[in-house]
Amino acid sequence: MNIQSIGTLNELGKATGIGTGSNVRENRNAAFETLFEAAVNMIKETNRYTNEAEEAEIAFSLGLMDNTHDLLIAQQKANIALQFTIAVRNQVLDAYKEIMNLQF
C-alpha cells in the first residue's frame, strides 16, 4: 500500500490562507478535490490488493501455485490495506460528527 498518496492531505493546510472570498472558495474546492481523490485512490488500491489475494487463493486452490509464502503475503497486504482504509473512514466519520455537533 502506498502511504505516500495520503501525503496529499497536507495540501489542506494550504487552503486555510486569508484572501478574497472567491480565492478562499477556490482553495476549499481544491482541498476537497485533493482529499476526495486521495480517498478514491486509497479505495482503488485496497480493492486491487483484495483482488490479488483472491486470485492467489484461487491459484493455490487449483494447484497453479505451490508457494504458501506468496499466498500469505498477498492476504496480509489485502488485510492491512483494508484495516488502514477502515481506520481512515472511522476518523473521517468522527470528524464529521464533531463538525455536526458544533454550535454556531
Description of the molecule:
- 76% of the residues lie in helices and 0% in strands.
- It has 104 residues and is an all-alpha fold.
- It has one domain (3-101).
- Helix 2 packs antiparallel against helix 3 (68-101).
- It is elongated and about 60 Å long.
- It starts with 10 loop residues before the first helix and ends with a helix.
- The model is unreliable at 15-19 (pLDDT under 50).
Please supply descriptive tags for the structure shown above:
single chain, 3 helices, elongated, 104 residues, mainly alpha
Can you give me a brief rundown of this structure?
Helix content is 76%, strand content 0%.
Strand-pairing-aware structural class:
mainly alpha
Q: Number of DSSP strands?
A: 0
The total tally of domains equals: 1
Oligomer description: single chain
The largest pleated sheet is described as: none
State the end-to-end distance. Answer: 40 Å
SS summary, helix count: 3
Percentage of residues in helical conformation: over 70%
The SSE string, one letter per element, is HHH
Low-confidence regions: 15-19
Shape: elongated
Radius of gyration, in angstroms, nearest whole number: 19 Å
Beta-strand portion reads under 5%
Mean pLDDT: 83
List the helices and strands and how they pair.
Layout: H1 11-14, H2 21-61, H3 68-101
